[in-house]
Amino acid sequence: MTDRDCIFCKIAAGEIPSATVYEDADFRVILDLGPASRGHALILPKNHYKDLCELDESVAARVLPLAGKLGAAMKRALGCAGFNVVQNNGTAAGQTVFHFHVHVIPRYEGGPEMVAWKPGKADPEELAAVSSSIQKELEL
Ligand code: AMP
Ligand code: ZN
Question: I need a surface site. Which of 39, 106, 108, 127 has the fewest CB within 10 A?
Fold first, then answer.
């Protein structure tokens, strides 16, 4: 289940060299070539899934534990004070490579700054309406 035109399929398969942090039968973890901070890593499944909506559940079940272990290793190895786990789906959300991946981004005291959203104001009626419309479409 790979895509011949997908750069992350090629990197995950080892056909294109990368700074690999970890590899097993299902995943390769590499360092990002455009790092947001020192140690910025990407978790790549070896199979091709366009985004989170396509991701196999058994692969998904391994992703967060792996991200947590990577973050803990980053704290010990790099001295970061924390880390962000980021995962973009769709162009509107900032996804640029359409092979599912998870960013694990070390955060250091004193920066660099990351993009953050400005909290809006919630209206209770709007919250109820939005919650109900999502609930109707939720397929579990
Ligand atoms: P996203 O915007 O969530 O799709 O993230 C794509 C990420 O992949 C960006 O942070 C890029 O810097 C990174 N990236 C793109 N091509 C490569 C590559 N060949 N090796 C490592 N990282 C890459
Ligand atoms: Zn791919």
Answer: 127
